[in-house]
Amino acid sequence: MTISIIHEDDSLIIINKPAGLATQSANIAQPDCVSLIKQHLRKIDPNPGSEPYVGVVHRLDQPVAGLLVFAKTKKAAGILSRQIREDMMSKHYTAVVEGIVDVPNYTKLTDMMYKDGRSSRAVIVDDKTAADGVKEAALLYRTECIMEDKNLTKVSVKLLTGRFHQIRAQMSHIGHPIAGDAKYGAKTHYPHGIALAADRLNFTHPVTGEKVEKVVDFSFTL
Q1: CB atoms within 10 A of CB 120
Q2: Residue 173 in 3-state DSSP?
Q3: Quick one: CA torsion of 58, 11, 33, 189, rounded to 10 degrees?
C-alpha cells in the first residue's frame, strides 16, 4: 500500500491516506502511515541510518480515506497539536449515507457519547451520567446530492468536535449510517472501506504562520 503526498516542507507533511491503511499501528508487521512516511523520509535523509521524526497530530479511522498532516519536528508537532486542542484546525468530510437526507443548509447534530473499549464503538447516550467518559459530540451536515434510485445521499460534514467514530456514530443515530459501515448498521456494500473521506483541511503553518488549505476530490463508486 502506498501514500500520496499532497504537500511537504521542512516542518510538516500532508498525505492523502487510502482507505484500509492505519494512521499508526501497534503491529510492527502491519504497514501504517507513520512507517510509510518514515520510509519516504529515509530516502531523502542526507544521514542514512538516522531515525526520522514523524509526529502524529490527528488520526483517521482505518477504513476512512483522506487528508492527514504529520509533523516532521517536535516543535511543529506541539504547535499543530495545540491548534487541534483549541479548534483552530478545520476538517471537512464528505460521506455517502443510506437513506434520503434532504437538508439543504448546514444543520447541527449534538449528542453525548463515549467510547466502548470492548466493542471499539462509539455509543450515544442521553446524558453525561450514563457512563464513564461521556463527552459532547457536535457536527454540521448538509445534503450534497440525493441518489433516489439507490436510496443513498451524499452529504457534507464539518466537525465541531473530534470524538472517536463521531461521524459514523452520529449519522447512524439519526438513521443514516455511512455506506459500507456495517459496524454502525449499514446494509449497503462499499468495496473501499467505508464511504467517508476527509477531503478538506485548513490550519496555520507552525513556522511561517501562513494559512494552509488542502482539498482533494473523492468519487465514491457504489
Answers
A1: 10
A2: helix
A3: 50
pLDDT tens, residue by residue, 125-148 = 988 777 788 999 999 999 999 999
Q: What pTM does this model have?
A: 0.90
CATH number for the domain formed by residue range(s) 92-196: 3.30.2350.10
CB 161 within 8 A of CB 103: no
DSSP 111-132: EEEEEETTTTEEEEESSGGGST
CA distance 183 to 166: 13
Closest CA to 50 of 17, 72, 78: 72
**Intrachain domains 4-90+202-215 and 92-196 with the same fold:** yes
**Nine cell digits for residue 111:** 449528542
Q: Which CATH class is domain 4-90+202-215?
A: alpha beta
- On the CB side of 6, CA atoms within 13 Å amount to 19
Name the average pLDDT for the chain.
93
> Which one-letter amino acid corresponds to residue 69?
V
Give, in degrees to the nearest 5, the angle at Cα 141 between 126 and 132. 25
**pLDDT greater than 70 at residue 48:** no
Range name among 10-14, 47-51, 185-189 with the lowest pLDDT average: 47-51
Average pLDDT over residues 112-128: 92
Q: Which residue has the higher pLDDT, 141 or 222?
A: 141
User: Which residue ranges make up each domain of the chain?
Assistant: 4-90+202-215, 92-196
| 177 DSSP assignment | P
